Amino acid sequence: MALAVLALVAALLLGAPENAAALGRGLRQECKKNGDRCSLYAEGDCCSGMMCTMPLECSSRGSRSECFPECRKQTLSKLNKVDYPSSSGKTPALEAGQRSRPAVVVMQEWWGVNEAIKATALHIAEQGYRVLIPDLYRGRVALQVMEAIGLASDLNWTRGIDDVVHAVTYLRKTGAKRVAIIGFCQGGAMAFCGAQFAGVNAALPFYGIPNNISGCNPLRIPANVPIQAHFGTNDNSFPVSRIQPLALSMQQAGVNIKLNLYEGLPHAFFNALTPEGRRLLAGNNPNYKQPNETLVTQSFSRMTNFLRLHIRDNK
Ligand SMILES: *[C@@H]1O[C@H](CO)[C@@H](O)[C@H](O)[C@H]1NC(C)=O
Ligand SMILES: *[C@@H]1O[C@H](CO)[C@@H](O)[C@H](O)[C@H]1NC(C)=O
Ligand SMILES: *[C@@H]1O[C@H](CO)[C@@H](O)[C@H](O)[C@H]1NC(C)=O
């Protein structure tokens, strides 16, 4: 066992870039030399002792620019607990980043507010945003799929949407001039709802679509809310056969949506960006393979470009 790990590490150090699947979970990877591009799947220190985190934003501007992962020092490491006022009294949430920064509401997957969504939110905050994660499950977090199914089916969407609407109100009242909503899986569906009801400046749904008991209708999203949607073509939960016709009908209804499809990526692919997320993606599956890093990175780059365009460059 130890020998096998050593062999893997040796293979990595000697450079076997095509053998991406060999990067097992939790395996440390060293940079071959200072200044190397960080692999998002690496968990070790690299590049002159800095932590590998998310891609930096690119210096060029505009919707056509893309950026690539680099090393940077992670400065934010902590989310603060807050309660903000909502129709149900108070909604618990986690928050990070300066209050005057443009803000991003980050919506949980069906698991609840777990370590993976917290890590994702911190990486978004690292790009220069204030982030807020409303806790729709009020402290409950699923560890197993069956628990997640239970919590998700218990979710009262009326209250959930109210939590989102008041999250945006809270952020604006406490200093944020512009607010976006981003969400994943169940939170992706909630991002569509937020775009419809919460008066956000932009929405970024990842692989989630509201069902017809949610009370949301993506066709009714106001035309002045730009939407950037991200879906993988290997998503069995929210397949292309559902999102593509929906995006088309939305466009025909005057909604400003751009659908980004990622060839071969599975459901929940954005989780591949963080160690916690990768643990979640792998589950107990011994045959787990990391999703295509180039494409996962591209989705992150598009996200940061879109946020900058709509909640930072404008004012
Ligand atoms: C869902 O939440 C709304 C708003 O808080 C509440 O009025 C309604 O009774 C709830 N529905 C159920 C089934 O609990
Ligand atoms: C809502 O869902 C139900 C049950 O899945 C389905 O029968 C109905 O046609 C759906 N309604 C709309 C408007 O899509
Ligand atoms: C990952 O996606 C990129 C862009 O589509 C593609 O060029 C590359 O071959 C893919 N890599 C693997 C290992 O499939």
Detailed description of the structure:
The structure is a single chain. The protein is an alpha/beta fold and 315 residues long. It folds into 2 domains: 1-30; 76-312, Alpha/Beta hydrolase fold, catalytic domain (Rossmann fold), CATH 3.40.50. It contains 8 helices and 11 strands. An 8-stranded mixed β-sheet has the order 4-5-7-6-8-9-10-11, sandwiched between helices. A 3-stranded antiparallel β-sheet has the order 1-2-3. Helix 6 links the parallel strand 10 (227-234) and strand 11 (257-266). Helix 2 packs antiparallel against helix 7 (275-282) and helix 4 packs across helix 5. The longest helix has 21 residues, at 293-313. The N and C termini lie far apart (56 Å). The model is unreliable at 1-31, 45-51 and 59-64 (pLDDT under 50). Bound molecules: 2-acetamido-2-deoxy-beta-D-glucopyranose (NAG) (3 copies). One 2-acetamido-2-deoxy-beta-D-glucopyranose (NAG) binds next to helix 4.
Describe this protein with a few key phrases:
binds 2-acetamido-2-deoxy-beta-D-glucopyranose, Rossmann fold, about 20% strand, alpha/beta, about 325 residues, 8-stranded mixed beta sheet, about 35% helix
